[in-house]
Amino acid sequence: MLVTKLLGLIILIADVLGDVHPVIRDRRQVDACSERPTYGERRRCAVKDGVKQLLQKRNEDWSWGERVEAEAIIALHLAKYKVFKKTKASLYISVKQMNIDLLSAVSKDNSLTSKEWGRGKLAYYVLGVKATCQDPRDFYGHDLIDKLKNHLIVSSSYLDSNKFDYSLILIALCKAGEPIDTHNLNDISTTPGYYTFGVDEASVVYMAYHCVGNPTYKKAEDAAFNFILQAKNENGTFGNEYSTALAVQAIFASGKRTLRRQTRTGIDYMVDSIGRNKDPFTSLLLSVLPAIARKSLLDIGSWQCTTPEQGTTTPSTPTFLVEITVFNNITAIDYDRTWSATLRQGQTLYDALVNLNNTDSTFSFKSETATWGQYITSINDMTASTDDRQYWQILGTDGSPLQYGASQTFPSQGDKYTFKFTIW
Ligand SMILES: *[C@@H]1O[C@H](CO)[C@@H](O)[C@H](O)[C@H]1NC(C)=O
Ligand SMILES: *[C@@H]1O[C@H](CO)[C@@H](O)[C@H](O)[C@H]1NC(C)=O
Ligand SMILES: *[C@@H]1O[C@H](CO)[C@@H](O)[C@H](O)[C@H]1NC(C)=O
């Protein structure tokens, strides 16, 4: 009896000490920041305090603001929180806030091709989704990878003049485990060694090549990397804090330990820039924190995810029907037939054809992969032929030809599509 009581008392004391101890230790560490300002200490304290400042900058609803969420989550992930755990609810709630931001945007425009989302912004969210151990292929039923690939096509004229955003999209696809087309790898440095946006551009171009690791592009990769190293100023910076952050990220992404020294003064400069007395902007914290922590975008999701809690985040995805008509009155076979195809939210018209092909024996088709997506060559053995100047034209619900191909079209409930065998 006495023994149990004594044991209880010991457990109680241990509990109290367990609660108090981390507080004492924390305070000692913060004090050490000012007491012993060695380079390493300064760097570590800056990460710690920068993370704290970033968390304090959240709004009433625990968000940082529309379209900023992913970059903030990425900064926290790279600087401190390898894994976002349920046990840290005040942090985890901001992951939910990121999801809400993205879901809200998708609910307004399923393809996210607006200027705000279609020019690189979705890439950050795909990386943010990866960083938080969620699946970008099935984000509440939405295939974010299909959408991002689509942006390479529909935003191509913008991306051709902005290789920074272009490379960012490739990095996100690469980190999501997607193969990258060679024409995309050609595009991001048409003239290796020349970068419209200087170090900033060279850094993301380099990280994109380094992530993909295709030996054919080794020269272009090296050109970008050498450009970064040569852009270093005498005072150790690579431009302003934002450019310095990207250059330092690229150097750490290279994994070349001998180059670490090259980043020291740059890191010192960034550490200074986020001192509390400077009241740094959120955007500055987002840029410099990963670099000060000696991480890069390529480190995203490199840590093992704990097994997902089944069924807590992904509700079953609603499905809907679209009508697909195949029409041919230009050959001897007069053909006019309509099917209903099932589609999950976020899937493309091409997916509808695949679903139909897999579930209905009266429908079959063939397609080829072209640079702009899937090209339908044959439906129910009616094969398009260049010699006969025939192709499968796709008409939308309003009867007019679609602007993009089947793999870039995201149908809604009740849409009707006609595949019309046509002579050009
Ligand atoms: C470092 O040097 C560059 C080029 O000389 C200059 O533009 C920049 O302002 C300097 N930065 C700092 C922090 O001294
Ligand atoms: C094929 O059908 C279209 C649309 O119904 C029609 O305009 C066209 O005249 C027809 N062509 C032939 C050769 O019958
Ligand atoms: C259509 O289904 C058949 C099997 O029934 C399969 O062999 C073929 O690859 C499918 N075609 C496409 C384009 O998915």
Q: What is the element layout, followed by pairings?
A:
Elements: H1 2-35, H2 39-56, H3 69-79, H4 89-108, H5 115-118, H6 121-131, H7 144-154, H8 156-161, H9 163-175, H10 182-188, H11 198-212, H12 218-230, H13 241-254, H14 264-273, H15 282-292, E1 319-328, E2 335-344, H16 349-359, E3 365-370, E4 373-379, E5 382-383, E6 390-395, E7 416-423
Parallel strand pairs: 1-7
Antiparallel strand pairs: 1-2, 3-4, 4-5, 6-7
Helix pairs in contact: 1-2, 2-3, 2-14, 2-15, 3-6, 3-15, 6-9, 9-11, 11-12, 11-13, 13-14, 13-15, 14-15
Bound molecules: 2-acetamido-2-deoxy-beta-D-glucopyranose (3 copies).
Which class do the helix and strand fractions yield?
alpha+beta
Radius of gyration: 26 Å
Domain count:
2
Q: What is the succession of H and E elements? A: HHHHHHHHHHHHHHHEEHEEEEE
Low-confidence stretches are 6-32
Biggest sheet, spatial arrangement of strands: 2-1-7-6
Overall average pLDDT:
88
Distance between the termini: 95 Å
Shape: elongated
* Number of H/I helices: 16
Helical fraction equals 40-55%
How much of the sequence lies in strands comes to 5-15%
